[in-house]
Amino acid sequence: MKKNHINSISEKTDNENNGKINNINNKPNELIKEMGSVITAANGKTIYCLTIIGQIEGHYILSSENKTTKYEHVIPQLVSIEENPKIDGLLLLLNTVGGDVEAGLAIAELIAGMSKPTVSIVLGGGHSIGVPLAVSAKKSFIVKSATMTIHPVRTNGLTVGLPQTFEYFRRMQTRITNFVIENSKITPERFCELYMNTEELVLDVGTILDGNKAVDEGLIDQVGNLSDAIKHLYKMIDKHKEKNNSKDKSEKKVKSKNE
């Protein structure tokens, strides 16, 4: 009896989530209000636009005065986008000061692991853990006026002053560095130089890159605006559909020969 009750709750939740994603033509303003996202359908293509803004909230609830992006809201959206056959691609809009490292990496890993076309564009800022998020898409853009701050892992509040604490920070920094270099063109040596720079920031260690500099460093693929990002996403969607169609045809031929 208890198991059936749990299943009914799970089915109800799935239906509610699918309703929000699948119903792309009804009440788009509610989707913006509830999830900070919008779904657009034009030129035979359906794009899910996801925003990462303010501070990324992780395991601890931040002050209500802070503009935050909650990772428990973003992660289910990404799963729905990947599994929803009506969604052709993802456009990721970034304007973030950073935030929880593990939450940011979790979101970045999900985006990097998606099979559908993904494009990111940095607007305003893509700082701290926003850097892995920016490079997680298959194609990354940045506007000229945007900036990205690269600095080492740090924490607020009291910490235990033992070697184990610093070893933990070192390992976490390695995780971030590995992800960034695997999803961009920057070298690990150069990335280390940037986040250990002591000559640029007054109260911190690190480097601030504007749009052109981020591209020159190999961190971001291209300087561009919203229309550039959407046009490229359209091209990626077309190629993705062609690839899937040719794959389906080859599978049908193999199946017919076996029969």
How would you characterize this protein structure?
- The protein is α/β, with parallel strands linked by helices and 259 residues long.
- The protein has one domain (2-258): Alpha-Beta Complex (2-enoyl-CoA Hydratase, Chain A, domain 1).
- Helices cover 49% and strands 22% of the residues.
- It has 9 helices and 9 strands.
- Strands 1, 2, 3, 4, 5, 6 and 9 form a 7-stranded mixed β-sheet that branches. Strands 7-8 form a two-stranded antiparallel ribbon.
- The longest helix is centred in the C-terminal third of the chain and has 33 residues, at 226-258.
- The model is unreliable at 5-10 (pLDDT under 50).
Topology:
Elements: H1 2-22, H2 28-35, E1 37-42, E2 45-57, E3 68-70, H3 71-83, E4 89-99, H4 101-112, E5 118-126, H5 130-135, E6 139-142, E7 147-150, H6 163-182, H7 188-195, E8 207-210, H8 211-216, E9 222-223, H9 226-258
Parallel strand pairs: 2-3, 2-4, 4-5, 5-6, 6-9
Antiparallel strand pairs: 1-2, 7-8
Helix pairs in contact: 3-4
The H/E string reads HHEEEHEHEHEEHHEHEH
In the CATH scheme, the class would be Alpha Beta
| Gyration radius, rounded | 21 Å
CATH-derived topology: 2-enoyl-CoA Hydratase, Chain A, domain 1
Helicity level: 40-55%
How would you summarize this macromolecular structure in one to three sentences?
The N and C termini lie far apart (45 Å). The chain is α/β, with parallel strands linked by helices. It has 9 helices and 9 strands.
Please describe the structure with a list of short key phrases separated by commas or semicolons.
single chain; 259 residues; alpha/beta; 2-enoyl-CoA Hydratase, Chain A, domain 1; 7-stranded mixed sheet; two-stranded antiparallel ribbon; 9 helices; 22% strand; globular
